[in-house]
Amino acid sequence: MDEVYEVQPLSMTFCLDCHRNPAAKLRPLDKITDLNWKWSNNPTANAETATSSTAKKFMHDWRVQSLQNCSACHR
Predict the structure, then answer these.
(1) In angstroms, rounded to a whole number, what is the distance separating the alpha carbons of residues 39 and 36?
(2) For 12-63, how does the pLDDT look when each residue is reduced to its tens digit (9 = 90+)?
(3) How far is CA 11 from CA 6, 16, 18, 63, in A?
């Protein structure tokens, strides 16, 4: 059985960073479970691609919203 461990603390800041800029965290559907997947190995290219038209298209097609109110997660 695989061992489970915490890579990053799951704080409110961790969540809000993604809610504020969801396009940067989106990836192709076939890569959803690949936790090592990146847009590119180059950090600069990674940042540019994550905010590119591809990421924005994902947001539009999947109806991803930048919800920052408490009830988005805490219901």
Answers:
(1) 10
(2) 887 888 888 888 778 888 988 887 887 778 877 777 776 677 888 888 888 9
(3) 12, 9, 12, 25
Tokens of 17: 């960073």
d(CA 34, CA 27): 10
Count of H-run helices and E-run strands, the chain: 3, 0
Taking the whole predicted model, whether its pTM rises above 0.90 is answered as no
Contact predicate 28/61, CB 8 Å: no
* CA 30 – CA 37 distance, rounded (Å): 10
- The letter for the amino acid at 36 is N
